[in-house]
Specification:
The protein is α+β, with helices and mostly antiparallel strands and 193 residues long. The chain is built from two helices and twelve strands. The strands form three sheets. A five-stranded mixed sheet has the order 6-9-4-1-12, with no helix packed on it. Strands 7-8-5-10-11 form a five-stranded antiparallel sheet, with no helix packed on it. The chain is elongated.
Length: 193
């Protein structure tokens, strides 16, 4: 006796809750903050470093830069987003410009807090240091959870018509998969009915 024809209804009644659970979690709206280091660079500046009396301390200066990309990839806003550095950097720039507050935690870590990051919003956090090392970003979190660290790298721009073609192929593939899945369910139901 075929196991599908004998226990088809029971198997379908077990599979459907798993599919429902997976889809409800997949389409559940929440904030998903991702942070990646866009790039860093060091410049050797051919300008002497002088003390208060005008004496040359160093013939050349070293300037370090680092750029972080902050993205809320979720469907809900990220509230009270904190970027925590191990110490206060010399210069900070945000683009596009947005308000933030600065504070220090009990261990002396430098904390930048953003009240609100809208869904699908992104911004750059650029830090700069002259003649000293850059601070490392230790962690980042918001009220909805801890931000995940992502890797970023340059990518060539793909033709928009090619992207539309690929999207259509993916859509047709998913529609075919759903159609075949529904046909399989109908076949199972008629065999077990």
């Amino acid at each position: 006796m075929n196991i599908l024809s004998q226990y088809g209804k029971e198997l379908i009644s077990i599979i459907i809750p798993f599919i429902t659970f997976t889809l409800s979690n997949f389409f559940n709206g929440k904030a998903k903050v991702s942070i990646g280091e866009l790039h860093q660079f060091s410049f050797l500046i051919d300008e002497p470093l002088k003390d208060d009396e005008g004496n040359v301390i160093k013939e050349k200066q070293l300037l370090h830069t680092k750029y972080y990309m902050v993205i809320n990839e979720g469907r809900e806003p990220a509230k009270k987003l904190e970027l925590i550095f191990n110490y206060k950097n010399m210069h900070l720039n945000l683009w596009p410009v947005r308000p933030y507050t600065e504070s220090f935690d009990p261990n002396g870590r430098y904390v930048i807090t953003f009240e609100y990051v809208a869904p699908k919003e992104s911004f750059r956090c650029e830090i700069l240091s002259i003649n000293s090392e850059l601070p490392e970003m230790l962690t980042s979190r918001c009220e909805q959870g801890v931000a995940r660290s992502i890797l970023l790298y340059p990518q060539k721009i793909i033709n928009k018509y090619y992207l539309k073609f690929i999207q259509c192929c993916v859509f047709l593939g998913m529609a075919s998969f759903i159609y075949i899945f529904i046909m399989l369910l109908q076949w199972l139901i008629t065999k077990t009915g």
